[in-house]
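User: Can you recover a sequence for this backbone? Please restate the input before giving your answer.

Assistant: Of course. Working from this structure:
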């Protein structure tokens, strides 16, 4: 049996991103200008702007520090900055390179990523078209060399049973392939927590399995979600 008080959310339940905790860098030279690209996984606008600020200090003598970032499972936050380059010639092409990156066959779901391209001017003007290509290619080249991870939202569901039933039920659920958190023993009962793929079919199947294992006595209760790297 399933408690429907907490409905399954309808927004995206998975997306691709960069590994946590490291930057990915690449460099292109185009007509004597150096384009140094830095990619970082970021989960907020503050984190994205922190990367820009860090690179302004590191490459303090560069002429431009152009940036773009996309955030959120649904990619609802999208920003770009030309940082002195002609309007639309840097930030937007960088953002489009992030948004159009195929992370799987036919899939374009890259998010929680900030790209900064530092440019050292080489003395030759590239023109608007040349700049668009240079900034787009810089981000694409960096992404080509950066590994991606799949980030997935898991639906946490709990079931409360008597202490005497907890061990057997936990073992049966694990044997069936379910991922469980450590069982929480309270004064009058034990609480088992399952981490499920966040889609209605998976949750419903888990509720049916639980009903079978407990002869309909236990109820699966949705208790939140958690994002994890796959």
């Amino acid at each position: 049996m399933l408690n429907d008080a907490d409905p399954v959310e309808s927004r995206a339940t998975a997306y691709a991103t960069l590994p946590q905790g490291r930057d990915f860098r690449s460099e292109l030279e185009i007509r004597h200008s150096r384009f140094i690209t830095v990619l970082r996984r970021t989960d907020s606008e503050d984190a994205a702007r922190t990367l820009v600020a860090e690179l302004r200090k590191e490459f303090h003598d560069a002429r431009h520090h152009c940036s773009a970032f996309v955030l959120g499972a649904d990619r609802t936050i999208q920003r770009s900055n030309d940082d002195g380059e002609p309007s639309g010639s840097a930030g937007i092409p960088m953002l489009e390179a992030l948004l159009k990156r195929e992370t799987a066959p036919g899939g374009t779901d890259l998010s929680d990523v900030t790209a900064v391209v530092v440019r050292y001017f080489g003395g030759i003007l590239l023109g608007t078209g040349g700049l668009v290509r240079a900034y787009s290619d810089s981000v694409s080249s960096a992404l080509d060399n950066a590994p991606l991870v799949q980030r997935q939202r898991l639906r946490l569901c709990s079931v409360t049973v008597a202490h005497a039933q907890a061990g057997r039920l936990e073992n049966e659920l694990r044997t069936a392939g379910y991922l469980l958190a450590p069982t929480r023993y309270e004064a009058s009962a034990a609480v088992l927590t399952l981490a499920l793929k966040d889609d209605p079919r998976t949750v419903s199947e888990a509720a049916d399995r639980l009903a079978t294992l407990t002869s309909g006595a236990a109820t699966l209760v949705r208790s939140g979600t958690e994002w994890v790297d796959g």
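That completes the design. Residues 2 and 220 are 5 Å apart (CA to CA).
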